[in-house]
């Protein structure tokens, strides 16, 4: 899954949290992912709208780090990302209360089975589903060479919108 990245967020007082997300869009407006709007990551982004992403591709010896501010995307983008998800992913999202304590796994499985039989082929996007965009301020490309002399190239966006590129020591 080349689109999988670790998303690091923090609470208002700086307590960190990290989890894997799937980046679904990369364009001039940033990097987009979808999520429920009532889970921990959304709460952290609401109080501290800054985040970091790390992509790690071990087989290639490559890493990309992105840091920046986070904005909630328009509802239309959230609905588009929702429509691109597989049906089973959509059903799981509809029945899950992300991050809440689960007393009985069978209860969740029964809820999924009910949704599977009741929903049509195209389950609608719920109101608690949204999309976020990380607007990069810093992007660092990292790759190994055969001697383990890591190549690090950092790009930092200036106040004028132009990018400064620097090579960093391994």
Compute the number of strand runs: 9
Sheet with the most strands, sense and barrel status? 9 strands, antiparallel
Mean pLDDT: 95
Order of helices and strands: EEEEHEEHHHEEE
Fraction of residues in H or I helices? 10-25%
Please give the alpha-carbon distance between the first and last residues.
26 Å
Which structural class do the helices and strands define?
A: alpha+beta
Give me the Rg, rounded: 19 Å
The best one-word shape is elongated
Low-confidence region ranges? none
Structure annotation, total helices: 4
Proportion of residues in extended strands = 35-45%
Task: Please provide a written account of the structure.
By secondary structure, this protein is an alpha+beta fold. It has four helices and nine strands. Strands 1, 2, 3, 4, 5, 6, 7, 8 and 9 form a nine-stranded antiparallel beta sheet that branches. A hairpin with a 7-residue loop joins strand 7 (129-143) and strand 8. The chain starts with a strand and ends with a strand.
Blueprint (SSEs and pairs):
Blueprint: E1 4-10, E2 16-22, E3 25-27, E4 30-36, H1 40-47, E5 50-57, E6 62-72, H2 75-84, H3 87-95, H4 105-118, E7 129-143, E8 151-157, E9 163-168
Antiparallel strand pairs: 1-2, 1-5, 3-4, 4-7, 5-6, 6-7, 7-8, 8-9
């Amino acid at each position: 899954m080349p689109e999988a990245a670790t998303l690091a967020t923090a609470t208002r007082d700086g307590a960190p949290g990290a989890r894997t997300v799937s980046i679904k869009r990369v364009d001039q407006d940033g990097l987009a992912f979808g999520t429920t709007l009532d889970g921990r990551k959304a709460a952290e982004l609401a109080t501290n709208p800054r985040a970091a992403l790390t992509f790690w591709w071990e087989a290639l010896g490559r890493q990309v780090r992105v840091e920046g501010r986070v904005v909630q995307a328009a509802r239309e983008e959230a609905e588009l990302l929702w429509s691109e998800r597989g049906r089973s992913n959509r059903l799981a999202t509809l029945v899950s209360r992300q991050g809440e304590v689960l007393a009985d796994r069978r209860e969740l499985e029964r809820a999924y089975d009910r949704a599977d039989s009741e929903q049509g082929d195209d389950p609608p996007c719920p109101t608690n589903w949204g999309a976020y965009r990380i607007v990069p301020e810093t992007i660092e490309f990292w790759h190994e060479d055969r001697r383990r002399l890591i190549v690090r190239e950092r790009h930092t966006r200036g106040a004028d919108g132009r990018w400064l590129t620097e090579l960093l020591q391994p």
